[in-house]
Structure formats: C-alpha cells, structure tokens
Amino acid sequence: MTTPLRNQLGKRIAPGFWEDAEGHPHWSIPELLELVNLPDTPENCARVTAMIREQVLKVNPEASIIERETPED
Length: 73
Prior knowledge:
This protein is an alpha+beta fold. It has one domain. The protein has helices at about 30-35, 40-60, and strands at about 10-15, 15-20, 25. It has a 3-stranded antiparallel sheet with strand order 1-2-3. Helix 1 packs across helix 2.
C-alpha cells in the first residue's frame, strides 16, 4: 500500500505550514499553537482552525478545506 501524496511532505514553508507532494497547503494546528506558546486545548485548536478557515475562504471562496485529526486520516 502506498502513502497518499497528501501525506507526503513536498516542502516545509514555515513552522506549522507545509505543502504536500501535490502542492496543496497544510497547517499543523498543534505546531502553530506551540509556536506562540498557547496550550493545545480544544478551545485553542477551534479558534486557530476558525481563523485559518476564515482567511483561506476570504482569499479563495472556492477552496476545499479538509480537517483531519491525524495525517493518516
């Protein structure tokens, strides 16, 4: 069984941001929270997720956003 290209690192953009082998952007919410010294709580995760969703859809209303609990999902 091969690993989906969405799970293969294409390039690291910045802490918490990376691009998969197909060129699609990804965000690691726990990594972003750690970067700004916020605890990884459900509330903080929800807040950061909502902020990212809002900004992505503002720039590209047609964007498809997939939330996954783990990279394997």
